[in-house]
Records
---
Amino acid sequence: MRPACAPLAAVELQSGDLMPPIGFGTCCRPSASGSELVASTLAFLQQGGRLIDTAQMYGNHREIAEAIRASRVDRSELWLTSKVNTRVVKSRGAALRSINTSLGELDLPFINLMLVHSSWGLTSQQLLDVWRALIQARDEGMVRNIGVSNLVRHQIEQLEQESGVRPAVNEIEFHPWVPNSTFQLVEWCTSRGIAVTAYGSLGGSANSLGSSSEVSSLAKRHNVSNAQVLLRWSLQQGVAVIPGASSTEHIIENLHLPRFCLSQAESDGLIRSPMPRSFTRWYNLESEWGPLTRAWQYMTFSSIVLDISIVAALAVCVMLAIRHRKHKQLQRADPLAMQDANFTSEDPAELELTSRPGASSEE
Ligand SMILES: NC(=O)c1ccc[n+]([C@@H]2O[C@H](COP(=O)([O-])OP(=O)(O)OC[C@H]3O[C@@H](n4cnc5c(N)ncnc54)[C@H](OP(=O)(O)O)[C@@H]3O)[C@@H](O)[C@H]2O)c1
């Protein structure tokens, strides 16, 4: 176990590569795309930050490439983590092609760390196929290290047993309010030499860290900010962090943590305190799935079926709305004729009223 107050150290992966302990997250907030992302990523690099966490799913590789080019940081100093989009990539060939595309978008000769984004919607065979693609990509030099995200112990064990390759990293949601099973997962990963990276350390983009009185009182006691308390807490558990931030002020705060440390009692007190109401819980780990999440997981298994159903349902709604509107218009125009009307066509343009001769005058 890392001594609580040790200075920030790089995380040594199984390959011997050193991964920076504090990175920059590029997902899930309004500023995580376009020119705002270019500006914030550039600010992070200019402030001395070196690890950027992105993913194929975030759709922002090109903006990140632009920021890297503008920063003029040497490739050898930079750490780029990305993830295979397992919502759409479910085979070995597709995974290899997607990595190739990512390299082009990022304008980089290699990616430092490529992760399987999640097991959602994948059979265990598909998960293994994607993992085998990552092994091949590493062997061919497209990526330097390979790992997983949102996987639990039995899934990691299975990948290792079937492929003979242990993931270098598991990126998961981690903060003081995750369930006990996540703490056990972190301990198990660490004991196997699998580095853990935390996402959601600050509660996601809807957070309001000030709403936790426990975090605020620790921040006051150590003369640091609320965010710095949470980031330090994670690092003291031996878990790297990748906070997302829009403003340069936040970026500086997150990157340059003052040299303070939380005592064991303070750390335990944080875990026991209520989770700030505004915190986002992702429930991405299989062990945390409740019945609703399982139902959703089942549906995403056949995502094409789901997509088709959604499009069909929307089309029916639109058709019904048009019919209803036309019907109302006709009713307003000639309410008596409507009572006796037969619709001879589905097409509103061809809509025709065939009334009995003299029907309207009789009534
Ligand atoms: N592997 C996965 O499945 C997965 C899932 C989710 C996220 N991630 C990765 O993890 C990264 C971080 O996780 P996250 O997006 O859940 O967000 P987070 O890092 O927990 O929180 C980001 C939010 O914290 C705010 N913030 C940042 N620094 C702050 C500071 N010093 N003081 C106060 N507020 C501060 C930011 O506000 P401002 O924007 O206003 O600065 C932003 O809204 C993502 O960007 C992504 O790269 C991975």
Note: The chain is about 45% helix and 10% strand.
---
Amino acid sequence: MSVSTRTPPTSMHRRRLHAFQQALLRWYARHQRPLPWRQTRDPYKILVSEVMLQQTQVDRVIPKYHEFLGRYPTVRHLAKARMPELKKVWYPLGYNIRPLRLRKIAKQVITHHDGKIPDSYDGLIAMDGIGRYTAGAVLSFAYNQDAPIVDTNVERLLGRYFGVAKRGSMFARRRTLWQLAAAVIPKGRGYDINQAMMDFGALICTARAPKCASCVLRRSCRSYPYEGSNSPAAGPRRHRRHRT
Ligand code: SF4
């Protein structure tokens, strides 16, 4: 039976939640990707990486992340950036509204926060250009707070593992996923579990052909074996139905 989008996370089976946390953190300790933005807690650098990663693959972001920070090492440098050069440095990542948004955020940080990126959800979300995901990422990755995040990898993983129904309203599903993202954080481990979910969604519980056969969550996953996965039990794609 799937998690209804109306079911509050408090009704989740404790063992399923515990199994998720334990298995995922163990997996992350062994398999985490050595990404450059994991070498820093500087909120400005975290913010830059998060905006760059929106709709762009990690491999493409890494060299540009270094180049961008070499040119604009602080929020003050970015706030003063000239647009033609900013676009040039950003090229060829695409979605060119993003550097504009970043510079706008930098200007707000200088004007309203004395050059310091806010460390509260309300302070972040009040800024033009920062949404719920980015606010959670900055709080979690820079300020080590137990803030939830839901990006496409996290959404896919939580949705499959907890069997969040895809039918019904998109709004209700999103709300359930955000509730789950908050519920899965063990106290004081927001940074680790959030990074773990993103890596796991990118490497194991992938959009196509998830690696269910070797997945450390398979024993408690509501969707195991997922349709089209590499598990023999999943069978040919056309014969499988979603297990909910
Ligand atoms: S068993 Fe498959 S669907 Fe479930 S979490 Fe693992 S990879 Fe994803």
Note: Residues 160-161, 204-205, 210-212, 215, 217-218, 221, 223-224, 226, 229 surround iron/sulfur cluster (CB under 6 Å).
